[in-house]
Design a protein that fits this description.
alpha+beta; five-stranded mixed β-sheet; globular; 27% strand; 240 residues
């Protein structure tokens, strides 16, 4: 299963050409993503053994019930995994924030971009993907190759709430590592500037924002801060 295409009327487009999404399942399986980011991250890049240990530790803490993956950013519109079911979900105590600096993918070492992470505080609505047991090992390994490139994220099991506020399971969510070198607690003007200008091998930081914004709107999820950021970034690009 994959999410439905995002209607054109729900998009806020960046100025200039939009690069195609380069983050695919195939690129994760053949480790070409590792090769792409290796030079930028250097010793920060986790080894395959370190990722396997991280995944094993996470599964050791698995709560009872099915395994869900909580998507709050690019997983919403480009999940790259096979899943059995998807549901809108809310997590408490964590909020969506452009607080992760990236020197590759959506930026460069000279002009780093920003991507989303879950930071402490507030709440966040997104999508939960249920992964079937028979493909669990393969699909989570794929996600670890995608999200756990460095120690920028800390995977956690978070209760998933439905529209009525009732818990229906636990999902793996990638929360930001505030002690890591990629954590960026920036003022809004600096966030807008980075999102409006940074671009890397996976596309622009602005397009990452606009795709996430459109994906949330398609699901009927309101995020006033992302609404605000999308308008500011689009205006900054038009202003040049």
């Amino acid at each position: 299963m994959t999410p439905d295409p995002i209607p054109a009327e729900d998009r806020v487009e960046a100025e200039g050409p939009v690069l195609p999404h380069a983050l695919t399942r195939e690129r994760l399986l053949d480790n070409s993503l590792d090769k792409m980011v290796g030079d930028a991250f250097g010793p920060q890049l986790l080894t395959a053994e370190q990722r396997e240990a991280s995944l094993a530790e996470t599964l050791h803490l698995r709560p009872e019930g099915p395994v869900w993956l909580f998507g709050y950013g690019s997983l919403i519109w480009n999940p790259t995994i096979h899943y059995a079911e998807s549901r809108v979900a809310r997590v408490e105590g964590w909020q969506r924030a452009f607080c992760l600096s990236t020197p590759v993918g959506r930026g460069t070492p000279e002009q780093p971009g920003l991507v989303l992470a879950l930071d402490a505080g507030g709440a966040c609505e997104g999508v939960a993907f249920r992964i079937a047991e028979e493909v669990l090992a393969e699909e989570l390994s794929l996600i670890w190759r995608r999200e756990m490139l460095t120690g920028a994220y800390i995977p956690r099991w978070l209760p998933l709430l439905d529209a009525e506020g009732q818990a229906y399971g636990h999902g793996i969510a990638f929360t930001v590592n505030r002690a890591g070198p990629q954590y960026a607690d920036l003022p809004e003007d600096a966030v807008v500037q980075r999102l409006a200008t940074a671009q890397g091998q996976l596309g622009s930081a602005a397009q990452y924002l606009f795709e996430t914004h459109a994906g949330l709107r398609r699901l009927g999820i309101q995020d006033p801060f992302l609404d605000h950021l999308a308008l500011r970034v689009a205006a900054a690009q038009k202003a040049g």
